[in-house]
Amino acid sequence: MSRILLIEDEIVIRAELRRLLARHGHAVVEAGSIAEAEAEHELCAFDLVLADVRLPGAPGTELVGRCGSAPVVLMTSYATVKAAVEAVKRGAADYLSKPFDHDELVALVERHLASVRPEAAPPAPLAAPPAPPAPDGDELEGMVGGSAAMREVFAQVRKVAPSEATLLVVGEGGTGKETLARAVHRLSPRRQQPFVLVQCAAIPDAQIEGELFGYEAGAAAGALAARAGLCEAAEGGTLLLDEVGELPMKVQGRLLRFLQTGEVRRVGSTRARRADVRLIAATHRDLGAMVREGSFRSDLYFRLRVLEIRLPPLRERPGDAVRIAESLLKRRTRVMGQAPLALSAEARAAIAAAPWPGNVRELENAVHRAVVLAGGSAIERAHLGLDDPPRPPPPVSSASLRDGAPPSDSLEGYFRRFVLEHQDELTETEIARRLGISRKALWERRQRLGIPRPRS
Ligand SMILES: Nc1ncnc2c1ncn2[C@@H]1O[C@H](COP(=O)(O)OP(=O)(O)OP(=O)(O)O)[C@@H](O)[C@H]1O
Fold first, then answer.
1. 245 lines ligand 1 (CB under 6 A)
2. Same domain, 104 and 170
3. What is the mean pLDDT of each run of 10 residues along the chain (456 residues)?
4. What burial class does residue 68 get, using C-beta atoms within 10 Å of its C-beta: 0-12 exposed, 13-18 middle, 19+ buried?
5. Ligand 1 close to Cβ of residue 336 (< 6 A)
6. 155 phi/psi in degrees, rounded to 5
7. Pocket test for ligand 1, best of 154, 178, 246 (most atoms within 8 A of CB)
8. Of 97, 115, 285, 393, which has the fewest Cβ atoms less than 10 A away?
């Protein structure tokens, strides 16, 4: 059993992470800030330290060099990626950009624990043996698919990866745009350098310019010190602008200049700096239509799509839903420390026939749910929840919320019900406040759980 120090000030997130790590056999000690952790514990006494970058008091990056041989893994949001990248350069073991998958977090923690204890006995045989590699051509850097459409996508990815040209990835929500961008980065000569993900839709319009390009001291209210932007944080590596269609016009102009000149000029500065960054942009929107409507600059559109890859929806990839489900099933049971599970013939047929409007992300949620419900036996059709009629969420009383009453089901289920029930009458700020999380965390969790914000 490894001892992990978890420092996170958002209570709901912390509880969720603690339960996740505990389920994987780790002893977790929690704190809401570095000061609190230091007051109660010896920082060097842990096998690994997992901390948010943004904390009350000192930021999580200050843990670097203070935790003995324990790897320090940082969790970042868009606003702190740069700080996290710098911290890795100074000795932090790694960073994870929110929103992240539970699987991703567990895999990263296990990897770092294993790397500090090469002599340690192998973990108890909880975990299933690693999945055999998918047959040649059916998998590329985490993307599974044997359909003709996906083989074509894999061929395009291999072709564009070594290039320096800007790439536009287009596809419906949940088709794997971010996964594809990461694959391009990993197959490119920039693979050893940072991959920086910017969720354009999650950053308030008033801040996005400064976040991307940095600013000089005094450039805006509250900008007390000069700060580098995410373009600079990605120096030498790849910058993914996810949901690029959400960028305000003013920022589109600045991005265009960056692409034309290869230079970044911080807000409030007259001095331009060269930035060696490969840009990948992703969107589920029809940018061509946005150009025609006048909400997206045509010159930027043409700059972005020097190279373009379209990810087909899952319903246009015959056979892939079952292939991906099997791969996700292996991944999920391995992460949960369970023996491998099989899909029954009926379950396979149901997966193949379902339309999957939420694409791979929806399939992933269905597999996750099925593993929990199957309780160790084969996955049946009923476990996938494909036949469930859409139900209005059961009421959650505000009294139980105030009392912080523990949900009878999972925290995610509780979150989902609360959001669905209240999103029509409460603002995002009010929902976040009543859940005890930040607006940013609310947005991130909506993304992860596939509960998009209703368009007003
Ligand atoms: N071809 C694939 N094979 C296996 N897993 C995949 C594949 N494509 C996507 N996934 C998984 O599905 C989930 C959603 O993928 P990803 O986040 O890349 O999609 P996206 O198009 O960027 O989503 P969104 O539009 O919601 O931002 C991720 O957990 C990813 O690992």
1. no
2. no
3. 88 85 84 89 88 92 91 82 82 82 82 65 36 59 94 96 95 93 94 87 83 82 75 91 92 94 90 93 95 95 94 96 95 81 94 92 90 88 76 40 40 77 81 72 79 67
4. exposed
5. no
6. -65, -40
7. 178
8. 115
Q: Whose CA is nearest to atom 9 of ligand 1?
A: 176
CATH of the domain at 292: 3.40.50.300
- Start-to-end CA distance of the chain, whole Å, equals 49
pLDDT for position 396: 38
- Output the CA 227–ligand 1 centroid distance in Å: 32
Residue 335 in any domain: the answer is no
Residue of 406, 405, 335 whose CA lies nearest to 372: 335
**CB of 323 sitting under 6 A from ligand 1:** no
- Among 244, 277, 310, identify where a domain stops: 310
Asked if residue 422 belongs to a domain, the reply is yes
CA 176 to centroid of ligand 1, rounded, Å: 3
The residue behind tokens 């759980």 is 449
Is 138 within the bounds of a domain? no
User: Can you give the pLDDT at residue 377?
Assistant: 86
Gyration radius of the chain over CA positions: 22
* Cβ within 8 Å of residue 240, ≥6 positions away: 178, 181, 182, 185, 195, 196, 197, 198, 280, 281, 282
- For 169, phi and psi rounded to 5 degrees? -110, 120
Domain count, the chain: 3
Question: What pLDDT sits at residue 123?
Answer: 37
Question: End of a domain among 310, 345, 370?
Answer: 310
Q: Could you tell me the residue range of the domain that residue 279 belongs to? A: 148-310
Joined together, the tokens standing for residue 267 give 């807000």
Output helix, strand, coil percentages for the chain, rounded to the nearest 5. 45, 15, 40
| Residue 212 to residue 11: CA distance in whole angstroms | 29
Q: Residue 42 C-alpha to ligand 1 middle, in angstroms?
A: 39
> Using CA atoms, how far apart are residues 165 and 184, in angstroms rounded to an integer?
12
Is 52 in a helix, a strand, or coil?
strand
Q: Are residues 153 and 96 in the same domain?
A: no
Place of tokens 């007051």: 39
Query: What pLDDT score was predicted for residue 388?
Result: 58
Nearest atom (ligand 1) to Cα of 175 = 21
